[in-house]
Amino acid sequence: MSVGTIVWLSSELMFFAALFAMYFTVRSVVPQLWETEPALFNMPFSVTNTAILVLSSVTCQYGVFAAERYQRSRTGSLLQINRWGMREWYVLTYLMGAFFVSGQAFEYAELVHEGLTISSSPYGSVFYLATGFHGLHVTAGLLAFLLVIGRSFAARRFGHQEATSAVVTSYYWHFVDVVWIGLFFIIYILR
User: Which sequence ranges are marked TM in the entry (predicted)?
Assistant: First the structure.
């Protein structure tokens, strides 16, 4: 299961490499758009949204540590985060990922209001395609978290198979986060 996931993520890496290539190709053809269009971004909001997604990798990894200990759920109060199990960490990770996707939707609405749409310019096209496909991948990761969390409730005993599912889901989540860091740097920071 782990090896198959890594091979599949390699193909996903090629998909995102093509999106990066598209972005740089369009940028080299119409560089003047990069002087005006990025000014529409609400950078404090985008940085905050990015920080939430990146921090969700930390909470996801704490969930992995709990899964590797075969700790399905918390052993103390909900306020004692040092006693949380995989389920609590993955629910928090899910909420952070859902916040990120909601933040992207909010950002899209603001940019459309400002006149930046997928059809308004080549810049809009590459921006929405690159970030939109990433958003779809985050949404798929959220569904994977729901499956793993649901499986933790359904399993009579939280064992190796359940822990492996949690670990494999984390591979995907970390991959999506790393891709976003690259996209964020290229789209929002690099001028």
Answer: 7-26, 46-67, 88-106, 126-150, 171-190
Please write the tens of the pLDDT for every residue from 78-128: 888 888 999 999 999 999 999 999 999 999 999 999 999 999 999 999 999
- The total number of structural domains in the chain stands at 1
Q: Which domain holds residue 71?
A: 2-189
Say how far apart CA 87 and CA 72 lie, in whole Å.
Answer: 6
pTM (predicted TM-score): 0.91
